[in-house]
Amino acid sequence: MTFSLLDEPWIPCVLENGEQADLGIRQVFDGSNPVKEVRADSPVQTYALVRLLLAIYWRAHGPEMDADFRDADAIDAVIDWYETQQESARNNSPDEAVLEYLKLHEDRFDLLHPETPFMQVADLATQSGGHSQIQRIVPEAENEYFTMRAGEARSWVGFGEAARWVVYTQAFDYSGIKSGALGDPRVKGGRGYPIGTGWTGMTGGTLVVGANLRETLVLNTVWKNYDPGDQPSWERPQDSSEQRDNSMADSVVPRGASDLATWQSRRIKLFVVGDKVTGVLVSNGDKIPDAGANLLDDPMTPHRYSANKSKKGQPVYYPRPYGTERTMWRSLSPLISIDGDLGFTPKDLAPKRPKTLTFLADLSEQEPDLVPKLLKLELFSVEYGPKGSSVATVVHYGLDLPIALFFEEKSRVQRRKLLDAAKSTNDAAVALGSFAGQLLVAAGGEYEFQPYPTDTALGILEPRFLTWLSHLNVGDMDNQIAEWQKEVRQTILEQAAVLVKGAGPKALVGRITDSGEKVHIQSASTAMMWLRKKLKEALPLAFESEDQNREEKENDR
Fold first, then answer.
1. Which of 39, 121, 443, 544 has its CA 20 to 30 A from that of 263?
2. Is residue 505 situated within a structural domain?
3. Which residues are CB-contacts of 340 (< 8 A; sequence separation ≥ 6)?
4. pLDDT given at position 551
């Protein structure tokens, strides 16, 4: 029995005419189907599948990119290559380099191969001979809170869906104790002890989205010196139950972007009955060294600076996933910042943004028409439970940012202004939470910061901020920032008025509080005065016209 991932339909795609179709890998590249995007069973599964396609694309075209982009002699070659690839993407022309590459490795893309099944180990087994039901790798089925599947349908999946979840599991599987595989020297007492989540689960997945899937692949390709050793799983000898590099007992050192995009964090074996996949065995695979410290080869994730782990002259960075709380507000700095940007110090170094964004900015400075003026970005992350031993929630977020914002030297001041605009928005929203706590005091209660008004205000402002970002003119930001601060001020004051109405008559009258030295009247009115003061500190440009009018009136007296 065979199931070729090159030819069988298994990747859920949306075509450019809006129709949905499952395609094999070869169909994505042979020009037979104009594909707009991959749209799989979940956002993070989609990201894992796109990364698989990218690894194929990178390796197929890698020999063409064997030069340093920053070398003046190579710039023309780089520009010509990107122009050719983008034209091919627009015309949906067959990608001959990829098609030839797939021919070389087609025997390794058989999901059910008796010796080399795709991203699996054919003879994987445990001492007991047991395995799990297929729900083990299907998050919506494994978690009882998800009810999309029911009854018998939960007990099996087809070959195509099983393949998708295998790719997802290698990328995003949670940590925790695994089945102890025979032949793995790390197994103790029949158990495989935690080695961490899948590599992609450690990262903040950042995808630059093109007009169609083929352009997306081009936009997420960083021109760099070709490394023959940076091999995806199908170019290497088939994995066994042991770690790939047995010379390092604890972990395996990744070789590059293609290696990481297909990182085999688990050893997997599917169990098939007829045309159904009913079971799976999952054990530990290749461990990432030092939780990813200074692994900077993945071009699609930002990295955070760790002051605790760094030593003098030896800064340490870790991949930086995107969080579920206030995603947009907290994602801007890792998305746009680079070394040397304003607002950072030697003790608090800037994060490192995804290399894809830096490369596209460099390319745009050389050839402005080659890169979209507005980058459409999609962010993907998994937030895990305690010790990474469960999937808590999935982060999937979209935003548009002008390419000019990423120019290395030209836009350092503009990046700082944008980050300050985001911070001032957050500060204003936090002030609203404090204001709500003061209303509790005015009504006779005890002060307690109220996070709900803060989150509500940020939730209202977020879509407006995204629209503002998409129209940002990097060459003239001051006026736009002033208008934005006015928008924030108005929103916060509107929400404050709602809170006052809900605080009741006691808060309007207020109460006398004694701090030991002075007697204060705490009321809705005094709280509002405090809020306006804080807003003026956070949003000074929003109050400039008021201050000017006040000065003019005083001068007229």
1. 39
2. yes
3. 350, 412
4. 52
Evaluate if residue 147 carries a pLDDT over 50. no
End position of a domain, from candidates 370, 388, 410: 410
Q: How confident is the model at residue 515 (pLDDT cuts 50, 70, 90)?
A: low
Phi–psi pair at 223, nearest 5 degrees: -70, 125
Worst-scoring range by mean pLDDT, 252-256, 511-515, 551-555? Answer: 551-555
Please give the distance of CA 217 from its chain centroid, rounded to a whole number. 16
Cα 420 to Cα 425: distance, rounded to the nearest angstrom? 8
Write the DSSP string, 410-437: TTHHHHHHHHHHHHHHHHHHHHHHHHHH
User: 352, 336 in Cβ contact below 8 A?
Assistant: no
Query: What per-residue confidence (pLDDT) applies to 250?
Result: 80
Show the domain range for 450: 413-556
Which helix (H) or strand (E) segment is 280 a member of? Answer: strand 276-284
Q: Which residues contact 160 (CB under 8 A, 6 or more apart)?
A: 3, 8, 9, 10, 22
3-state secondary structure 8-19: CCCEEEEECCCC
Secondary structure (3-state) at 35: strand
Helix ranges (DSSP H) in 245-326: 257-261
Q: CB of 413 within 8 A of CB of 476?
A: no
Tell whether 395 and 429 lie within a shared domain.
Answer: no
Other Cβ atoms within 10 Å of 543 Cβ, number: 17
